[in-house]
Amino acid sequence: MTTLAVISAGLGQPSSTRLLADRLAAATVAALRRDVSVETIELRDHAHAMVDAALTGFPSGTFRAAVETVTNADGLIAVTPVFNASYSGLFKTFFDVVERDALDGAPVLLGATGGTERHSLAIDYAMRPLMAYLRATVVPTGVYAASADWGADGGLADRVDRAAAELAALMEARPAPEKADPYDEPVPFERLLAQGAGQ
């Protein structure tokens, strides 16, 4: 089963950020044309746990499960509202907690929402560098949705479909991770005996 993790860093409920995340996920599932398990994570539900994890260095409880969902997924959609010309604090805190190598090579689609078109470049100058630091593989098309885009004909839908097709292609091209078989290199019996004799 192919797994797709979706992060929504919106503060409201409902939010335009979640709406964009859902549209991107639906378009990606349609482009993959296979069975896909979609796991959506609302960061607002984990706000306190994220702060605790940032302070202790260890995610716990349902937040730990959310982090594992993201890091084990075959693809990731990450959407944030834009505040003060950059991603939200929730969005940044989540990726501060994720282990640096956990998203190495992971296919990622970036999306953002805002009140006006003025913040549309936040995906390129704020979000992409963050993903580059984490060594994720980001699709070329980022999707920014301003308030006016929700009523426009064609523009947003076209960008959503294009970005989703790019993510689907990356997910299909990525080789399945090799899982180590603990029985491939068994411990020699003599070493086990020697260890037992030393106790």
Salient structural properties:
199 residues, alpha/beta, Rossmann fold, 7-stranded mixed sheet, 7 helices, 44% helix, 20% strand, FMN, oxidoreductase
Overview of the molecule:
This protein has 199 residues and is an alpha/beta fold. It has one domain: Flavodoxin domain (Rossmann fold), CATH 3.40.50. The protein is built from 7 helices and 7 strands, in the order βαβααββαβαββαα. Strands 1, 2, 3, 4, 5, 6 and 7 form a 7-stranded mixed sheet that branches. A hairpin with a 2-residue loop joins strand 3 (75-83) and strand 4 (86-87). Helix 1 crosses helix 6 (155-173). The longest helix has 19 residues, at 155-173. The chain is globular, with a radius of gyration of 20 Å. It starts with a strand and ends with a helix.
Summed up, what is this model?
44% of the residues lie in helices and 20% in strands. The chain is α/β, with parallel strands linked by helices and 199 residues long.
The H/E string reads: EHEHHEEHEHEEHH
Task: Report the span from N to C terminus.
Answer: 45 Å
Q: Name the CATH superfamily assignment.
A: Flavodoxin domain
Total number of strands: 7
Q: Which CATH first-tier class would you pick?
A: Alpha Beta
Average pLDDT, rounded to a whole number, is 90
Uncertain runs with pLDDT below 50, 5 residues or more?
A: none
Strand proportion, as a percent range, falls in: 15-25%
Strands, helices and their partners?
Blueprint: E1 2-8, H1 16-32, E2 36-42, H2 47-56, H3 61-72, E3 75-83, E4 86-87, H4 89-97, E5 107-114, H5 122-133, E6 137-138, E7 143-146, H6 155-173, H7 189-197
Parallel strand pairs: 1-2, 1-3, 3-5, 5-6, 5-7
Antiparallel strand pairs: 3-4
Helix pairs in contact: 1-6, 2-4
